Amino acid sequence: MNALPTRPLVLDPREAVEPCARCDARERSVCNAIPEADLRRLGEASSIGTAAPGTTFISEGEPASAFFNITRGAAKLYKLMPDGRRQITGFVGVGHFLGLAVSDTYAFSAEAIDPVRYCRFSRPKLRTLLDDFPAMEKRLLQLASNELVAAQEQMLLLGRKTARERVASFLLAQARLGLVCQMPRARFALPMTRGDIADYVGMTIETISRTLTKLRSDGLIDIPNANDIVILNRPAMERIAEGMN
Amino acid sequence: MNALPTRPLVLDPREAVEPCARCDARERSVCNAIPEADLRRLGEASSIGTAAPGTTFISEGEPASAFFNITRGAAKLYKLMPDGRRQITGFVGVGHFLGLAVSDTYAFSAEAIDPVRYCRFSRPKLRTLLDDFPAMEKRLLQLASNELVAAQEQMLLLGRKTARERVASFLLAQARLGLVCQMPRARFALPMTRGDIADYVGMTIETISRTLTKLRSDGLIDIPNANDIVILNRPAMERIAEGMN
DNA sequence: CGGTCACTTGATCGTCTTCAATACCAGTGG
DNA sequence: CCACTGGTATTGAAGACGATCAAGTGACCG
């Protein structure tokens, strides 16, 4: 399921010298708010880290000593209850900025799905960076605002949608993922397991599976294999997702 | 249910002259990021508006032409589905800043609960204000981050908690409302209806009512009248809210 | 007093969960 | 090559929790 990384996960010596100048995640992240001339400062404020698939690199409740900027791979964010119930609050990819909790401890955990690379900013270093580059703060506010809108959409899904509507909404959102002003894909891969999907849309694995097979037998989607989805009838799917049955 | 406003809703002539200098909501909002000397500019960038109880002053899907800063009263934010299903995404009070959707349309609706007063900033005016006062952008980012944390907590509630856990969590959150670094109240008023609570925690009016009476008969809370709550056994309530039954 | 509105309480129903069995697939080693 | 293993997904049957439908209560107000 986890595709091989397109570039090796070990550090490239050139990157140690001028890491940010060569970072292919820069345009997709907050870092594009920093002018080229100041990239050295950006690099000095952060350190590069990695997380293997299945590894937790942020733990809910621990001291929030740093912020993370994902530069490769994907991760899931989640909250746990003492008895093990889990709510995944989001899947994040390249360019995503983590740790914006203003409290002194992390409000969620983060676990790598693929091999993940990130830039780690200590709190004080990020603060001085933000003081010197207000444009970066602007970008962060944009990102946070977008996340807030997504969170509200997810609350509607969790609080008021049926199983069928949840799965349809989820699939359509996945089809749009990473695309900006572009036609969503008809076919796409689900990088996460059924269990992850279930904990994201607030249901059980079994109901996810049943709902998917029902959508297939209704001719709305195809499931060539467990990890791939083809949307056959997008208009109908969108109607379902919005509750227009 | 809606208490009389402590001050009349009509405009005070002095406020027209130096509205922000006399604003008693300033310390609780983003506006405290603007130095005293520049309050005139702040006042010129915004216009004061009001919304009577039950009035919708932001409508989901309409062009997001302005931002709002609540200076008096309380409101509920919600999203609707075509068939009328509603999810309340939050209750907001004095100092809350609304409209941070980066999209060109509002992502939610806002309806006044009490008589509401707000300062309205047009998009371009707020933008120049933020350009001139980076500290204000900092404050906005703080607020947005806090909201994001609250949204994640709410997702856990909506996706994974039982009816009893939801109501307990909701009541405890209400008891903490508006308090910073202070003991939560044992007794407090619920300004919203059972219907609002239901649409906030993703259940029906009937289940809210039943769950409340069950909590009362268990001796955990008292309900002197429909709008007031007394928490009799806070530790037990907190255990329930966290799922430690 | 009759009216409305919000809330409460009861009985029944349905959707999703739970429990359980089976299928599937990749990797490993005989 | 094939049996074995562990993880993941699918499918079935039974059960529970909350929703729905319906009736009743109480407060407020003209």
The tally of strands of chain A reads: 11
What's the gyration radius of chain A in Å? 19 Å
Largest sheet report of chain A: 4 strands, antiparallel
Judging from the principal axes of the Cα atoms, what is the shape of chain A? globular
The helix-strand sequence of chain A is HHEEEEEEEEHHHEHHEEH
Strand order of the largest sheet of chain A: 1-8-3-6
Largest interface: A-B, 44 and 44 residues
Tell me the fraction of residues in β-strands of chain A, as a range: 15-25%
Instruction: Report the top-level CATH class of the largest domain in chain A.
Output: Mainly Beta
Characterize the quaternary organization of these chains.
Answer: homodimer
Give the termini separation of chain A. Answer: 34 Å
Structural class of chain A: alpha+beta
Summarize the amount of helix of chain A as a percent range.
Answer: 25-40%
CATH topology of the largest domain in chain A: Jelly Rolls
The unreliable regions of chain A are 1-9
Task: Give the full name of the CATH homologous superfamily of the largest domain in chain A.
Answer: Jelly Rolls
Mean pLDDT metric of chain A: 91
CATH architectural label of the largest domain in chain A? Sandwich
Number of domains of chain A: 2
Number of helices of chain A: 8
